[in-house]
Amino acid sequence: MIAIGSDHAGYELKKAVTAWLGENKIPYMEFGCMEGESCDYPQVAEEVCGRVLNGGADKAILICGTGIGISMAANKIKGIRAALCTDSYMAKYTRLHNDANVLCMGGRVIGAGVAEEIVDTFLHTDFEGGRHQRRVDMISAIESNN
Ligand code: RB5
Questions:
Q1: 137 vs 101: CA distance, rounded Å
Q2: What burial class does residue 3 get, using C-beta atoms within 10 Å of its C-beta: 0-12 exposed, 13-18 middle, 19+ buried?
Q3: 37, 47, 65, 67: which is closest to 3 by C-alpha?
Protein backbone atom coordinates (compact mmCIF):
# COMPACT_ATOMS: atom_id res chain seq x y z
CA MET A 1 0.00 0.00 0.00
CA ILE A 2 1.36 3.39 -1.04
CA ALA A 3 0.41 6.70 0.59
CA ILE A 4 0.66 9.60 -1.87
CA GLY A 5 0.18 13.31 -1.29
CA SER A 6 0.92 16.66 -2.86
CA ASP A 7 0.36 20.36 -2.45
CA HIS A 8 -1.17 22.46 -5.27
CA ALA A 9 2.17 22.71 -7.10
CA GLY A 10 2.48 18.94 -7.20
CA TYR A 11 -1.17 18.25 -7.96
CA GLU A 12 -0.86 17.63 -11.73
CA LEU A 13 2.06 15.26 -11.28
CA LYS A 14 0.23 13.48 -8.45
CA LYS A 15 -2.69 12.91 -10.85
CA ALA A 16 -0.32 11.37 -13.41
CA VAL A 17 1.33 9.17 -10.78
CA THR A 18 -1.95 7.93 -9.27
CA ALA A 19 -3.15 7.08 -12.79
CA TRP A 20 0.05 5.08 -13.30
CA LEU A 21 -0.38 3.32 -9.92
CA GLY A 22 -3.93 2.42 -10.90
CA GLU A 23 -2.86 1.06 -14.30
CA ASN A 24 -0.22 -1.05 -12.57
CA LYS A 25 -2.68 -2.30 -9.93
CA ILE A 26 -0.64 -0.84 -7.07
CA PRO A 27 -3.01 0.12 -4.22
CA TYR A 28 -2.70 3.65 -2.87
CA MET A 29 -4.32 6.13 -0.50
CA GLU A 30 -4.33 9.76 -1.52
CA PHE A 31 -3.81 12.90 0.57
CA GLY A 32 -3.25 16.63 0.27
CA CYS A 33 -4.52 18.77 -2.59
CA MET A 34 -7.43 16.93 -4.25
CA GLU A 35 -8.64 19.49 -6.83
CA GLY A 36 -5.84 21.96 -7.35
CA GLU A 37 -6.71 24.03 -4.28
CA SER A 38 -3.85 25.69 -2.39
CA CYS A 39 -2.50 23.67 0.53
CA ASP A 40 0.61 23.64 2.71
CA TYR A 41 3.26 21.03 1.94
CA PRO A 42 4.49 20.56 5.56
CA GLN A 43 1.00 19.47 6.60
CA VAL A 44 0.78 17.02 3.68
CA ALA A 45 4.21 15.60 4.55
CA GLU A 46 3.21 15.03 8.17
CA GLU A 47 -0.08 13.34 7.31
CA VAL A 48 1.38 11.07 4.62
CA CYS A 49 4.46 10.09 6.65
CA GLY A 50 2.18 9.23 9.57
CA ARG A 51 0.62 6.60 7.35
CA VAL A 52 4.02 5.03 6.73
CA LEU A 53 4.92 4.98 10.44
CA ASN A 54 1.62 3.70 11.79
CA GLY A 55 -1.14 3.85 9.25
CA GLY A 56 -0.87 0.88 6.92
CA ALA A 57 1.30 2.28 4.13
CA ASP A 58 4.51 0.48 3.14
CA LYS A 59 6.03 3.50 1.42
CA ALA A 60 4.99 7.00 0.46
CA ILE A 61 5.27 9.45 -2.42
CA LEU A 62 5.28 13.20 -1.78
CA ILE A 63 5.14 15.88 -4.45
CA CYS A 64 5.44 19.67 -4.20
CA GLY A 65 6.71 22.23 -6.71
CA THR A 66 10.41 21.49 -6.36
CA GLY A 67 10.19 18.42 -4.11
CA ILE A 68 12.52 20.23 -1.73
CA GLY A 69 10.15 21.71 0.86
CA ILE A 70 8.14 18.53 1.22
CA SER A 71 11.29 16.42 1.60
CA MET A 72 12.65 18.83 4.24
CA ALA A 73 9.42 18.52 6.21
CA ALA A 74 9.30 14.71 5.85
CA ASN A 75 12.87 14.30 7.03
CA LYS A 76 12.04 16.04 10.31
CA ILE A 77 9.90 13.04 11.27
CA LYS A 78 11.63 10.29 13.22
CA GLY A 79 11.78 7.07 11.22
CA ILE A 80 11.30 8.77 7.86
CA ARG A 81 14.03 8.64 5.24
CA ALA A 82 12.74 10.81 2.42
CA ALA A 83 14.66 11.02 -0.86
CA LEU A 84 14.19 13.73 -3.45
CA CYS A 85 14.75 12.07 -6.83
CA THR A 86 14.94 13.57 -10.29
CA ASP A 87 15.89 10.37 -12.14
CA SER A 88 15.66 6.60 -11.74
CA TYR A 89 19.36 6.25 -10.86
CA MET A 90 18.72 8.26 -7.69
CA ALA A 91 15.59 6.20 -6.98
CA LYS A 92 17.52 2.95 -7.41
CA TYR A 93 20.39 3.90 -5.13
CA THR A 94 18.32 5.54 -2.44
CA ARG A 95 16.52 2.22 -2.06
CA LEU A 96 19.67 0.07 -2.31
CA HIS A 97 21.83 2.17 0.00
CA ASN A 98 19.59 4.43 2.14
CA ASP A 99 16.49 2.22 2.54
CA ALA A 100 14.44 5.34 1.76
CA ASN A 101 10.79 4.89 2.74
CA VAL A 102 9.49 8.11 1.17
CA LEU A 103 10.02 9.28 -2.42
CA CYS A 104 9.80 13.02 -3.10
CA MET A 105 9.50 14.63 -6.51
CA GLY A 106 9.06 18.12 -7.92
CA GLY A 107 5.97 18.66 -10.03
CA ARG A 108 7.53 21.77 -11.58
CA VAL A 109 10.83 19.98 -12.22
CA ILE A 110 10.12 16.66 -13.94
CA GLY A 111 7.49 15.37 -16.34
CA ALA A 112 5.12 12.43 -15.95
CA GLY A 113 7.25 9.99 -17.97
CA VAL A 114 10.35 10.48 -15.84
CA ALA A 115 8.24 10.41 -12.66
CA GLU A 116 6.70 7.06 -13.63
CA GLU A 117 10.14 5.57 -14.23
CA ILE A 118 11.30 6.90 -10.84
CA VAL A 119 8.26 5.50 -9.03
CA ASP A 120 8.60 2.11 -10.75
CA THR A 121 12.25 1.86 -9.72
CA PHE A 122 11.63 3.11 -6.18
CA LEU A 123 8.83 0.62 -5.54
CA HIS A 124 10.63 -2.36 -7.04
CA THR A 125 14.15 -2.06 -5.64
CA ASP A 126 15.04 -3.71 -2.32
CA PHE A 127 17.44 -2.41 0.31
CA GLU A 128 20.88 -4.03 0.02
CA GLY A 129 21.60 -4.12 3.77
CA GLY A 130 25.14 -5.12 4.82
CA ARG A 131 27.42 -2.12 5.24
CA HIS A 132 24.54 0.14 4.27
CA GLN A 133 22.52 -0.99 7.30
CA ARG A 134 25.28 0.37 9.56
CA ARG A 135 25.03 3.75 7.86
CA VAL A 136 21.25 3.83 8.04
CA ASP A 137 21.58 3.03 11.76
CA MET A 138 23.91 6.02 12.05
CA ILE A 139 21.20 8.23 10.55
CA SER A 140 18.77 6.91 13.19
CA ALA A 141 21.34 7.66 15.91
CA ILE A 142 21.51 11.28 14.75
CA GLU A 143 17.73 11.46 15.16
CA SER A 144 17.96 10.15 18.71
CA ASN A 145 20.90 12.38 19.70
CA ASN A 146 19.55 15.71 18.43
C1 RB5 B 1 4.44 26.21 -3.48
O2 RB5 B 1 4.30 27.39 -4.20
C3 RB5 B 1 5.92 25.80 -3.45
O4 RB5 B 1 6.62 26.68 -2.64
C5 RB5 B 1 6.04 24.39 -2.95
O6 RB5 B 1 5.29 23.53 -3.75
C7 RB5 B 1 7.42 23.78 -2.93
O8 RB5 B 1 8.06 23.89 -4.15
C9 RB5 B 1 8.26 24.10 -1.78
O10 RB5 B 1 9.40 23.62 -1.63
A1: 14
A2: buried
A3: 47
105-144 pLDDT, tens per residue?
999 999 999 999 999 999 999 999 999 999 999 999 999 9
Which atom of ligand 1 lies closest to the CA of 64? Answer: 6
Residues 6+ apart with CB under 8 A from 106: 10, 63, 64, 65, 66, 67, 68, 84, 86
Residues with C-beta less than 6 Å from any ligand 1 atom: 7, 9, 41, 64-66, 68-69
Name beta bridge partners: 63: 6, 105
Ligand 1 midpoint to CA 87 (Å): 20
The neighbouring-strand residues paired with 59 are 2
What pTM, to 2 d.p., does this model score?
0.98
Distance 70 CA to ligand 1 centre (A): 8
Extents of the domains making up the chain: 2-145
- DSSP per residue over 113-141, as a string? HHHHHHHHHHHT-----THHHHHHHHHHH
**Active site annotation includes 85:** no
Domain spanning 2-145 has what CATH number?
Answer: 3.40.1400.10
